[in-house]
Amino acid sequence: MADKDYTYSDVSEHSTKKDLFVVIHDKVYNASSFVDEHPGGEEVLLDVGGQDATEAFEDVGHSDEAREILDGLLVGKLKRQDGDPQPKSYAPAASSSSSTEGAGLGVGLYAIILIGGVLAFGAYKYLQSQQEGQ
Ligand code: HEM
């Protein structure tokens, strides 16, 4: 059952307190049994019922314990389709693009450090040869 694929519109049909699905990191969770127990209140869960709750969930900085509870509520995974709302900052797509930017900057930084090092070494050698000549 946990392997079932849900489309975003399947998930959006489960948005009532008794039948409450949320999507977090492209996985689908049935939060119905947990709504009443949620330390953050039922209101916030109902707000994201049937929708992508990744941002709301991550913004709170939930504990590992909260993530374990989440594992127990797993019912399947989200199958994204064209036209579905795209997840924002915590989405794999968004994070992969920002990590490529990060990698680009990283390579640039290495190049600068390397060139700086070569120049410094050249200057050192030059000064040394000047001194030897004296
Ligand atoms: C099914 C998904 C969720 C689970 C299993 C869950 C679980 C928990 C747990 C176990 C806590 C206690 C603190 C901790 O262990 O981190 C907590 C606190 C909290 N949660 Fe959630 N949560 C879920 C979704 C959400 C969402 C979508 C929001 C939206 C904003 C939210 C807002 C909060 C807030 C504000 C607290 C802090 C309450 C306090 O410390 O007074 N949670 N949640």
From TrEMBL:
Membrane-spanning segments: 107-127
One GO CC term, this protein: endoplasmic reticulum membrane
Single annotated GO MF: metal ion binding
Protein name per Swiss-Prot or TrEMBL: Cytochrome b5-like heme/steroid binding domain-containing protein
Compartments where found: Endoplasmic reticulum membrane; Microsome membrane
PANTHER family listed in its UniProt record: CYTOCHROME B5
Organism: Lophiotrema nucula
BP GO terms, sorted: sterol biosynthetic process
Chain ranges of the Cytochrome b5 heme-binding domain: 3-79
UniProt-listed InterPro entries: Cyt_B5-like_heme/steroid-bd, Cyt_B5-like_heme/steroid_sf, Cyt_B5_heme-BS, Cytochrome_b5
Record family assignment: Belongs to the cytochrome b5 family.
Compositional bias (Low complexity): 89-99
Region of interest (Disordered), residue spans: 79-101
Keyword Transmembrane helix: yes
Pfam families, sorted: Cyt-b5
Membrane topology, record value: Single-pass membrane protein
Source superkingdom: Eukaryota
Keywords on record: Electron transport, Endoplasmic reticulum, Heme, Iron, Membrane, Metal-binding, Microsome, Transmembrane, Transmembrane helix, Transport
